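Quick one, tokens below:
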């Protein structure tokens, strides 16, 4: 405890060092979020040089699988052996994977190196959240929510633009090499100015639990990635993956009840707020990434927007999300109250999705922009509050697994959102095309319900109009489903128990009183350890 107190004194005496650390953390977060969006833009060029079109999807899938599977393991390693070491290791692995990906000579190498990169990326987001949890008391942490939301918005807007520019002027390999200077800056800054107490736990790593969790998560991600695209939902391969995933996760839960130092301590789910925040995070990921996928598609196919500026098309949603997140952070910091934000955010998110489901071929860009802003306002109330409340609901020794679990649930939510909303969209588009354009319509969408701009421009006027109507019908179904799912977040938010945020500026209460209010054991408080 003395080491922790000394770290706090150093933090208070060196606010500039804290700001440098926070800047390094923001760079690391940017690396993790920007990578897939930059690489996605470079994919056509990569395939043109390396070949292997049939394996193209694995360039993204390998990265996603490795990131999702390693996320909870990084959180546990940080709790056991120290946050700083685990975070710096994840940066190094990410940079090694980036460098190797840039040097890849064939598609097989690129897929393998992307998996290495994904292993590092799994620790980047968890490390950022957990270190901020160590440095900043929950009551003060709201100030930094706007920064996190800003990085997310910047990545989504700038990713396609930066990726296209780098590929056009420097070549696709620089889509990976660009990570190196940024990552090195973050690594040096963290190494020089981040001072956290060192940890060493005698308990052994739960290798069996880690293996079962990795198999379970990988199976889930593969089901949501392949289902309805590579394989039919009822195919033997998908059924096998579902069986393997369920068996692995059931085995994982059993192992966690017996392990001396479990990868994911099940006792944290006894806390009502933590469980509810995990559910809200899952639903937010489900909705957000579905919206990011279908909104540009609708605006390009139906409203005739340019694909080059696809990131800018999301600006109303992302801008509203950024502003609301900043306001929510400031209000939370000044008042210590937060329950209103999940409730209001869930309502706005559901309303925004319902409004988006009403878009048709006659909807103007101004109208769709206003609808997107409503959705953005809702997500801005939820994006960082979920992490803040989840971290406030556990003991300091579980900060890493709390951060990684919340991140994992949001990641899994995004996988399910893209898969389920995508399946509904594709099915609806194909049905409408068959109705409106007959055999020609069926042939046009038999491979994919998403046509690129070049293919769309070549269609006869009647077929193009039919496709535009089909896309608007598909987005209607997808967003309507999202609106219904978002109501689940509202139900969860209603049952959130507003527990005073611990740490600087929070009302002085005993550890026992805090624990009783929080449904948590009366262990060390954040104010004592930070």
């Amino acid at each position: 405890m003395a080491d922790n107190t000394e770290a706090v004194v150093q933090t208070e005496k060196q606010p500039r060092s804290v700001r440098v650390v926070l800047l390094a953390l923001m760079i690391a977060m940017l690396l993790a979020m920007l990578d897939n969006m930059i690489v996605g833009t470079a994919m056509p060029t990569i395939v043109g040089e390396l070949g292997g079109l049939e394996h193209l999807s694995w360039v993204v899938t390998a990265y996603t699988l490795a990131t999702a599977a390693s996320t909870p393991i990084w959180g546990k390693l940080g709790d056991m052996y120290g946050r700083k070491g685990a975070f710096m290791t994840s940066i190094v692995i990410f940079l090694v994977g980036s460098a190797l990906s840039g040097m890849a000579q064939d598609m097989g190498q690129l897929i393998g190196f992307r998996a290495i990169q994904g292993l590092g990326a799994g620790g980047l987001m968890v490390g950022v959240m957990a270190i901020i949890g160590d440095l900043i008391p929950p009551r003060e942490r709201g100030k930094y929510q706007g920064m996190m939301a800003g990085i997310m918005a910047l990545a989504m807007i700038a990713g396609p633009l930066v990726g296209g520019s780098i590929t056009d002027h420097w070549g696709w390999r620089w889509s990976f090499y660009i990570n190196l200077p940024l990552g090195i800056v973050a690594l040096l800054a963290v190494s020089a100015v981040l001072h956290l107490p060192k940890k060493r736990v005698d308990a052994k790593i739960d290798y069996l639990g880690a293996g079962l969790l990795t198999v379970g998560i990988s199976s889930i991600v593969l089901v949501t990635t392949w289902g309805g695209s590579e394989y039919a939902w009822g195919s033997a391969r998908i059924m096998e993956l579902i069986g393997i995933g369920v068996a692995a996760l059931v085995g994982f839960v059993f192992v966690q009840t017996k392990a001396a130092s479990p990868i994911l301590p099940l006792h944290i789910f006894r806390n009502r707020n933590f469980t509810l925040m995990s559910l809200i995070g899952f639903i937010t990921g489900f909705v957000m990434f579905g919206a990011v996928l279908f909104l540009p598609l609708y605006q390009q196919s139906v409203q005739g927007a340019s694909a080059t500026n696809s990131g800018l098309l999301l600006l109303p949603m992302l801008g509203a999300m950024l502003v609301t997140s900043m306001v929510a952070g400031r209000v939370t910091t000044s008042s210590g109250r937060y329950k209103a934000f999940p409730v209001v955010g869930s309502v706005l998110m559901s309303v925004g999705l319902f409004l988006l489901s009403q878009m048709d071929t006659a909807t103007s860009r101004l109208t769709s922009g206003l609808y997107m802003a409503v959705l953005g306002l809702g997500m801005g109330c939820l994006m960082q509050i979920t992490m803040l409340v989840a971290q406030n609901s556990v003991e300091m020794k579980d900060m890493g697994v709390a951060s990684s679990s919340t991140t994992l649930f949001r990641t899994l939510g995004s996988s399910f959102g893209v898969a389920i909303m995508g399946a509904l969209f594709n099915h609806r588009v194909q049905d409408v095309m068959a109705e409106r354009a007959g055999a020609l319509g069926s042939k046009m969408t038999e491979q994919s319900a998403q046509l690129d701009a070049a293919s769309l421009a070549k269609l006869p006027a009647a077929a193009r109009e039919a496709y535009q109507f089909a896309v608007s019908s598909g987005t209607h179904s997808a967003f309507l489903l999202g609106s219904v799912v978002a109501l689940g977040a509202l139900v969860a938010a209603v049952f959130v128990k507003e527990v005073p945020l611990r740490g600087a500026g929070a009302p002085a209460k005993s550890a026992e009183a805090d624990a009783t209010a929080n449904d948590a054991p009366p262990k060390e408080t954040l104010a004592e350890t930070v």
